[in-house]
Specification:
Serine Threonine Protein Phosphatase 5, Tetratricopeptide repeat; 208 residues; mainly alpha; 8 helices
């Protein structure tokens, strides 16, 4: 008897719950759906995407990339002495001597030319040979050619065609055009043993 009453009570409760859900709960669900704001779809962004900059925000400044340039150093030429006289010519001559004595490669060459030509100084072949030898020993190709020519012609030094050929060879190693044109004529006039010795001496030359 007790089991039958309990079963009837449960059946009545299930029927009441069904009626409640059919009448009220469904309506509340529809009402809640009508009052809710629509949900906007959000675009999926790639994982590595950069964040968007809000409107009105200052744009990021970019630093310009300046390519590296190797700095250049300009070496001024020796000033011309043409037209100089008196103190100006003397000062220029002293300036050349100072440069030559301080180790300049080309200053003794220009100084030698002045003594060879008598430009601003008294013409002096021996003095010219002294300064020309200095420039030649320091590796200045034009001076090496001129010093060779001095030996060939006996200007300021004793005439010595073998020494002339040696200096022409040394200058020719630096593609000094006049030396290359002259050396062949001298070497061809010499015995083979002397040519070999001249070539050996030229090959061992080391600038001071």
């Amino acid at each position: 008897m007790i089991i039958r009453k309990t079963s009837q009570a449960l059946t009545g409760f299930v029927l009441a719950a069904s009626v409640f859900l059919a009448s009220g709960c469904g309506g509340d669900k529809e009402a809640s759906q009508e009052g809710a704001e629509p949900v906007q779809a959000v675009e999926a962004k790639p994982e590595n995407a950069l964040p968007e900059v809000p409107e009105g925000a200052a744009e990021a400044k970019t630093i310009p990339v300046i390519p590296f340039q190797t700095p250049t150093v300009e070496i001024p030429d020796l000033p011309p002495s043409g037209g100089m006289a008196g103190n100006a010519a003397s000062t220029f001559l002293e300036s050349l001597k100072m440069k030559a004595e301080d180790g300049s490669i080309d200053a003794p060459y220009f100084l030698a030319l002045k003594y060879m030509k008598g430009d601003g100084v008294q013409k002096d072949a021996e003095e010219a040979a002294k300064w020309m030898k200095m420039a030649a020993n320091r590796g200045y190709a034009d001076a090496q050619y001129e010093y060779g020519k001095m030996h060939e012609t006996g200007t300021g030094v004793a005439e010595n065609r073998n020494m002339a050929a040696m200096w022409y060879l040394i200058a020719g190693e630096k593609n000094q055009e006049q030396a290359l044109q002259r050396v062949g004529a001298l070497l061809n006039d010499l015995p083979e043993s002397e040519r070999e010795e001249i070539e050996r001496l030229a090959s061992t030359f080391v600038p001071e």
